[in-house]
Amino acid sequence: MKARAIAVLSAILIAMPFAATAQNYPVTQGKTYKFEKVADGVYYATGGFGSNNVVIVNDQDVLVVDDGTTPAAARAFIEDIKAITNKPIRYVVNTHFHYDHTDGNSAFGPEVQIIAHEYVRTAIATFDVLNREPFITSQKTAVPARIEALTKQIAAEKDPQKKAALQKDLAAAQTNWSQLQEIKPTPPNITYSSKMVLHKGAREIQLLFLGRGHTGGDTVVFLPRERIVCTGDLMESRLAYMGDAFFDEWVATLGALKNLDFALVLPGHGVPFGDKGLITAFQGYLTDVTKKVADLRAQGVTAEEAARRVDLTSHQKDFPQITGPGADVRGVRRIYAWMDERAKK
Question: Is residue 108 within 8 Å of residue 144, measured between CB atoms?
Answer without folding.
Answer: no
